[in-house]
Specification:
Blueprint (H helix, E strand, L loop, with lengths): L2 E2 L6 E8 L2 E7 L15 E2 L8 E3 L13 E7 L4 H17 L4 E7 L9 H10 L6 E3 L4 H5 L4 E2 L1 E5 L4 E7 L4 H14 L23 E2 L2 H7 L13 E4 L4 H7 L6 E8 L4 E3 L4 E18 L4 E7 L2 E2 L13 E4 L3 E20 L3 E8 L1
Parallel strand pairs: 6-7, 7-8
Antiparallel strand pairs: 1-9, 2-3, 4-11, 5-8, 6-10, 10-11, 12-21, 13-14, 14-15, 14-16, 15-21, 16-20, 16-21, 17-18, 17-19, 17-20
Length: about 350
């Protein structure tokens, strides 16, 4: 699964080259388990452009890395699809770095708060990333690669050409096959391959939901009849639990109370404002930020307190304290299930996205 940068709902997600035949796959990326791998051998890899800062390393260029195999990973720290791939990226680095694989994480932000260097540094520490991170705040390198999704891996061969790329999750085996082939070309002595666990991604789960009007209006995420009023505070009427349930777990949400309508987010303009979310998933996350020092979120599941065993990693006693700009895990259920999640929030709570797993 990938997070998509562009606003188009449907795209040609992948091109697979097999024996001279080009096959296109047109899919909705929000419901995709990894885009199709695309082989583009012989095309020179663009240099790193417009990098604001390098973390874990002095500045690097592809010219410096000529002769090595380079893994370029476009990611952003609030993207759950990216986060789920990071343990395996670390595994690739640990297994193949000594054999000549260099991994460069290109952190290309989707939201404004993701440009904050201290936030990126905290994410690097939290996810124990040992390899260089290029901070691509102006999206110079993102644009140079004509990239449009997170996560997206590009493999560069010893001659500096793009050898392979894979967008989304679930590509470990395909990537490992290519990494080993490219390292073989350098004459490297290869370690045993990594045995990756099968992906648990559910293609039928609720797709990612954007709360701000930039994406939310296009994708019709906000189900209230009042709709969006860009740049204004809207007082949303309460809807019944049955209305929320009837909307179905297909990627929509409801607001109640006074909310400021921003391009990237909606912000609670009063204490006690609510969000109603019908969903089908095992795990529920949201990307949020506080307008001040912190905001609080009280959760109900189907109108009742959330059972302790279903609380996500960031919840304590049914409460989540939003004291940073980040991804928060609200729920961890026993399996993928249909439910109604109610969030009652304090003034200043900013909601960016819901994501699921």
């Amino acid at each position: 699964m990938t997070r998509k940068k562009r606003l188009q709902l449907w795209i040609g997600a992948g091109v697979l080259v097999l024996a001279g035949t080009v096959t296109f796959a047109s899919v909705r990326l929000s419901t995709l388990q990894g885009a199709l791998p695309t082989q583009q051998r012989g095309k020179p890899a663009p240099e790193f452009i417009g990098i604001t800062k390098w973390l874990n390393s002095p500045p690097l260029t592809l010219k410096q890395l000529h002769g090595k195999v380079v893994w370029i990973d476009f990611w952003t720290y609030s993207c759950i699809n990216c986060i789920r791939t990071l343990p395996d990226v670390r595994a690739f680095y640990a297994r193949y770095h000594q054999a000549g694989l260099d991994i460069i994480g290109v952190h290309s932000p989707e939201f404004s708060f993701e440009k904050n260097i201290s936030n990126i540094q905290a994410a690097i520490k939290r996810y124990r990333l040992p390899y260089p991170i290029a901070v691509d705040n102006v999206l110079g390198t993102w644009n140079a690669y004509h990239n449009d999704s997170w996560p997206h891996v590009y493999l560069v061969d010893r001659n500096g050409n793009i050898a392979f790329n894979y967008a989304g999750e679930g590509g470990d085996d395909a990537l490992q096959t290519q990494v080993r082939a490219l390292l073989n070309e350098t004459g490297a002595r290869l370690p045993p391959p990594i045995d990756f666990a099968a992906s648990s991604f559910n293609p039928h789960q609720t797709p990612e939901i954007y709360a701000g009007y930039d994406r939310g209006a296009l994708e019709q995420s906000l189900a209230n009849t009042e709709g969006y009023e860009p740049g204004r505070i809207v007082d949303y009427r309460a809807v019944s639990p049955q209305t929320v349930t009837d909307a179905g777990p297909n990627g929509s949400f409801f607001l109640e109370g006074k909310w400021f309508n921003g391009g990237e987010f909606v912000r609670a303009a009063q204490d006690g404002a609510r969000v109603e979310l019908p969903f089908f998933a095992r795990n529920v996350f949201f990307v949020a930020a506080p307008a001040g020092a912190k905001a609080t979120v009280a959760m109900l599941l189907d109108g009742k307190p959330v059972p302790k065993q279903y609380l996500g990693a960031d919840a304590s006693g049914g409460i989540i304290v939003v004291n940073r700009d980040d991804l928060f895990q609200a729920l961890h259920l026993g399996g993928a299930e249909v439910h109604r999640l109610t969030l009652t929030v304090s003034k200043g709570f900013e909601l960016y996205t819901f994501t699921f797993g």
